[in-house]
Amino acid sequence: MNETELLTLFVGIIALCMVIITAVIIFIGTYSIKTMQKTQEFIAHVQNELSFLSTKAALTLHEVNELLSQLRVESKVLSDKSKLSLHELHDLISFLHDETKTLALKASNGIAKVTIGSLAIGAISQFFKKKNNP
Q1: Would you say the C-alpha torsion 105, 106, 111, 112 has a positive or negative sign?
Q2: Alpha-carbon gap, residue 17 to 24, rounded angstroms
Q3: Where are any strands of DSSP class E within the chain?
Q4: pTM above 0.85, yes or no
């Protein structure tokens, strides 16, 4: 082989390598573009989902806030009712205490009267027994 053929062979090999490298670069470029498009679609989808979720979270927080406000109002009403019920219960217990005290005094007076009566009957009985026994 002479030098011209050898040089042509090297230039041919270099040209073939350049074609292969160009094909690889085109393939990588095409694949990168497709990947970027899919990535952009994915990012757009994720952004939509995040937007939906953040809107849903904001609505949920708003509903929770309203529920807490309503619970505060209802618990205040219940608290007022509880105070009123406790006051009524206190009044009832005071009334029961007074009535029990009155009944105890009446019972004590009744017991004292019965005791005095029974002592009087016993004394009269003793008196008549002594008179009947000469």
Answers
A1: positive
A2: 10
A3: none
A4: no
Distance CA 73, CA 37 (A): 54
Rounded Cα–Cα distance for residues 26 and 30 (Å): 6
Q: Virtual CA dihedral for 28, 33, 36, 41, nearest 10 degrees?
A: -140
Which one-letter amino acid corresponds to residue 121?
Answer: I
The torsion of the CA quartet 75, 76, 82, 85, rounded to 10 degrees, works out to -130
Judging by beta carbons within 10 Å of its beta carbon (0-12, 13-18, 19+), is residue 48 exposed, middle or buried? Answer: exposed
| pLDDT tens by residue, the chain, 134 residues | 688 999 999 999 999 999 999 999 999 999 999 989 998 988 888 888 888 888 888 888 888 888 888 888 888 777 777 888 888 888 888 888 888 888 888 878 777 777 777 777 877 777 777 766 65
CA torsion through residues 18, 23, 24, 28, sign:
positive
Residues belonging to the chain: 134
